[in-house]
Amino acid sequence: MSEVLNNSAIIKNFNDFLEQGNYRKTPERAAVLNEALAFAKPFTADQLLEALQSTTFRVSQSAVYANLELMVAAGIFSRFFNEGLRKLQFTRVSDEKFVHLVCLRCGKVKIVKDQALAQELHAKRYAAFTEHYRIMCVNGVCNSCARSEKKQKTKL
Q1: Among the four 52, 67, 149, 153, which has the fewest Cβ within 10 Å?
Q2: How far apart are CA 83 and CA 102, in angstroms?
Q3: What are the DSSP calls for 63-87, one per residue?
Q4: Which pTM was predicted?
Q5: 70 near 43, Cβ under 8 Å?
Q6: Contact, 35 vs 51, CB < 8 A?
Q7: What is the distance between the alpha carbons of residues 146 and 85, in angstroms, rounded to a whole number?
């Protein structure tokens, strides 16, 4: 239930952002936001487009990219580059502090809460710079990819 309340507050804040910036409220924007909020983990614009195309509502690729950028500007989502997938990914901005563990082989992203590290990083300030959000990504190889590589090496 709190997820629904949270989503409705996000939708209201996004509508306020659109009004303040003199952007139109369109059905496409609403569809992109609703579908993006349905992702529990980081996602790519292509994954969002695919999810939207599986519904009866059609949205163009350019509309997805443009609306994601608006949502980043509104502070709903943040973006980071996933080296494993070689793609830009989006994740919901949150007060919770966590680390993204990104597999360089398969591109899988695992989210780990690390309060101690988050507090240490959050305490860091930078001169002449206003922070909007932080994302910490640790790039490496997940256990299943490491096991697969080990099996392949033993076969040789």
Answers
A1: 153
A2: 8
A3: HHHHHHHHHHHTTSEEEEEETTTTE
A4: 0.69
A5: no
A6: yes
A7: 17
